[in-house]
């Protein structure tokens, strides 16, 4: 038994299927501080041991670091990808490559509205006229609907990415979704990410090497000049900094 597996078992709780939001929130209050300094593998192992198949990870396919890490801990784990209908072809290609090469269950989730239907109902190019609503329809709601099947979800959020994420806990309570939110990579630096990618041959979206360090939908993502904030290319020219998923 590896040291990380033993550590995860030390944190193991009863399977949470059927637990109420109040019980899940109480679980986080006891465990979050204990796992704050734990390695990412241990955090994922704890989540898998605690939530079983009611735990999934999400990926925007900027890279496959979290998906790769989770697949080494729990082969067959659900990886949720939100297909907004506005993705770069490189992002869809990265998703397809992850599904083909990693032992994960890739779940592609999309809104019930096609882009054409959204244009007809809300006006053409909603991402220009009301980007918050566009994100709500094509990202926030589809994810919330999908997470109804789970008690906990993991994200690739890192505190180093933006000042808005400095306080992101490793294990916390997502009150809006009523779910446990796990961020195994929260404490990772850019250098740690690069090292993990190099050491493990992890898939990276080709756009990352073409001036797009943070990748969203193509209409709302721009290249970033060297040295600028990596997320400055997202919703450039507006005050918007997040899609709303992590609000």
Automatic annotation (TrEMBL):
UniProt family annotation: Belongs to the PAPS reductase family. CysH subfamily.
Source domain of life: Bacteria
Enzyme Commission number: 1.8.4.10
Boundaries of every Phosphoadenosine phosphosulphate reductase domain copy: 60-222
Catalytic activity from the UniProt record: [thioredoxin]-disulfide + sulfite + AMP + 2 H(+) = adenosine 5'-phosphosulfate + [thioredoxin]-dithiol
Protein name as annotated: Adenosine 5'-phosphosulfate reductase
UniProt pathway annotation: Sulfur metabolism; hydrogen sulfide biosynthesis; sulfite from sulfate
Known function: Catalyzes the formation of sulfite from adenosine 5'-phosphosulfate (APS) using thioredoxin as an electron donor.
Active site: 243 (nucleophile)
Biased composition range(s): Basic and acidic residues: 9-21
Record SUPFAM superfamilies: Adenine nucleotide alpha hydrolases-like
């Amino acid at each position: 038994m590896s040291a990380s597996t033993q550590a995860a078992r030390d944190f193991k709780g009863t399977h949470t299927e059927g637990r109420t939001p109040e019980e899940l929130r109480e679980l986080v209050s006891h465990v979050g501080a204990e796992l704050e300094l734990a390695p990412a593998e241990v955090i994922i192992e704890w989540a898998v041991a605690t939530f079983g198949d009611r735990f999934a990870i999400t990926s925007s396919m900027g890279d496959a670091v979290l998906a790769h890490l989770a697949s080494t801990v729990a082969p067959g784990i659900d990886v949720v990808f939100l297909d907004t209908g506005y993705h770069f072809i490189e992002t869809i290609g990265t998703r397809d490559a992850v599904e083909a090469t990693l032992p994960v269950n890739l779940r592609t989730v999309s809104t019930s509205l096609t882009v054409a239907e959204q244009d007809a109902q809300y006006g053409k190019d909603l991402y220009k006229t009301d980007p918050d609503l566009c994100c709500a329809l094509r990202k926030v709601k589809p994810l919330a609907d999908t997470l109804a099947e789970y008690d906990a979800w993991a994200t690739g959020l890192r505190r180093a990415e933006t000042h808005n994420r400095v306080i992101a806990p490793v294990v916390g309570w997502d009150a809006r979704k009523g779910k446990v939110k796990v961020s195994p990579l929260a404490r990772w630096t850019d250098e740690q990410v690069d090292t993990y990618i190099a050491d493990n041959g992890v898939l990276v979206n080709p756009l990352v090497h073409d001036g797009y360090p943070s990748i969203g939908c193509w209409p709302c993502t721009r290249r970033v000049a060297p040295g600028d904030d990596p997320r400055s290319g997202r919703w450039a020219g507006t005050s918007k900094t997040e899609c709303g998923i992590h609000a």
